[in-house]
Design a protein that fits this description.
Layout lengths: L11 H8 L4 H8 L3 H9 L7 H14 L5 H4 L3
Protein name: Transcriptional regulator
Pfam family, one: HTH_3
GO molecular function: DNA binding
């Protein structure tokens, strides 16, 4: 039986959206970033996005967690 989100390698961002019940597609819509980039952000814990992409991601994350900081999710 398939269980959504189980057994996948997830980054801190991926774990956040899973915890709050969002899908990657919803995060794509909220952030305005491509599906491929969001997929990488959610699955690769070592990925560090460019400054512009990071700003869009953090805006979407703050809609979920108002007190979030980029250091909480990325090793910058």
């Amino acid at each position: 039986m398939f269980r959504f989100g189980k057994g996948k390698r997830r980054s801190k961002v991926g774990k956040l959206i899973d915890k709050h019940g969002y899908t990657q597609e919803e995060f794509v819509s909220a952030s305005g970033i491509s599906r491929n980039t969001i997929s990488r952000v959610c699955s690769d814990p070592k990925y560090v996005p460019s400054a512009g992409v990071l700003k869009k991601i953090m805006k979407a994350i703050r809609s979920i967690d108002a007190g979030a900081k980029s250091d909480d999710y990325f090793d910058i």
